Amino acid sequence: MNTTVMSQKTAKVRRIEVREERLLWLTYGFYIVGVLIPLGVVINLFEIWRYRRATTLNREGMLIAERHHRWLLTTALTIFIATLISMGTFYYVVGAVVAIATVLWWIYRVVRGMLALSHHTVPAGTE
Hints:
The chain has 127 residues and is mainly α. It has one domain. Helices cover 82% and strands 0% of the residues.
């Protein structure tokens, strides 16, 4: 009987993690399609707010998801600031270099985050 109760609790926790993982994959997809990044930012902000208000036994799984959302939010804010800098200095050659570096960094952050999500770990450097 105790094993049945544990398996029901495990199934409930596993269902929550699958929902969070699917939402993260969707959000990473929004970041791949550059035009949908603002929608991804809204999802990230809402999920971080939701995790801060939640009290649950599955805190470890929520911390992994919260760190992924913070990773994506940091990526979006840095892309926004770097894009403004590159647009402001594009007349000079510096803007083009900053724009190329921003695109490469954006791809790096999204791929690194997706690899960490596929391994069910947090992206390195989000401690």
